[in-house]
Amino acid sequence: MANTDNGTFLTVAEVAELMRVSKMTVYRLIHSEELPAIQVGRNFRVRASAVDEYLGASEYTPGQTG
């Protein structure tokens, strides 16, 4: 039985809109395994918490190297 307490899932289009990037960019992040997703049929769904974690890890801090 599936656990329904795993949070909200977003479509690729919703993630792209939230991040203000193209859908192709989101697909690239998914296929490069930088953004975890699940595949439902031919479509991908991304957990909202995964988007938050990705954006948090991607924050720019002045003086930061790498």
From TrEMBL:
Superkingdom per UniProt: Bacteria
Coiled coil: none
Domain Helix-turn-helix: 9-55
GO molecular function: DNA binding
Record-annotated membrane-spanning stretches: none
Pfam families given in the database record: HTH_17
The name this protein goes by in its record: Helix-turn-helix domain-containing protein
UniProt organism field: Corynebacterium falsenii
